[in-house]
Amino acid sequence: MDIKKDKLQLFIATCLYLVAKYEEVSLPHITDFVYYADSSFTQRDIMAMERKVFLAVNFDMGFAYPIFFLICYRYVLPSSSMAMVHNLSKF
């Protein structure tokens, strides 16, 4: 599948903007994304793509529970601590 570079940049910038809205406390301004892409798209383009992305995922942004992160970090914790931390995280 061929995707034009400008459309791919728009999609990536839009996804980064959505993630920033979802995760960050201090949100970067939408014009920052336009600037970083050397004005290859506009703010309106990002907002239009944002609608398309939300429609594609049925407006489901998901939610990560703390247990998910503990499962990811189980390889970092000493094995003796992991069982206790895992059990305590369920309360």
Your description of this structure?
- With 91 residues, the chain is an all-alpha fold.
- It has two domains: 5-56, Cyclin A, domain 1, CATH 1.10.472.10; 62-91, no CATH class.
- It has helices at residues 5-23, 30-36, 43-56, 66-72, 79-88.
- The radius of gyration is 19 Å and the shape is elongated.
- The N and C termini lie far apart (47 Å).
State the low-pLDDT regions, or none: none
| CATH top-level class of the largest domain | Mainly Alpha
Q: What's the CATH H-level superfamily name of the largest domain?
A: Cyclin-like
Task: Calculate Rg over CA atoms.
Answer: 19 Å
Q: Characterize the quaternary organization of these chains.
A: single chain
Overall mean pLDDT score?
Answer: 84
Counting structural domains, the number is: 2
Helix content: 55-70%
Q: For the report, how would you describe the main beta sheet?
A: none
| Distinct helical segment count | 5
Report the end-to-end length measured between terminal Cα atoms. Answer: 47 Å
Written as H for each helix and E for each strand, in order along the chain, the element string is HHHHH
Quote the CATH topology of the largest domain.
Answer: Cyclin A, domain 1
Content of β-strand: under 5%
- Coarse structural class: mainly alpha
The 3D shape can be described as: elongated
- Write down how many β-strands occur, each being a DSSP E stretch of 2 or more residues: 0
User: Do you know the CATH architecture of the largest domain?
Assistant: Orthogonal Bundle
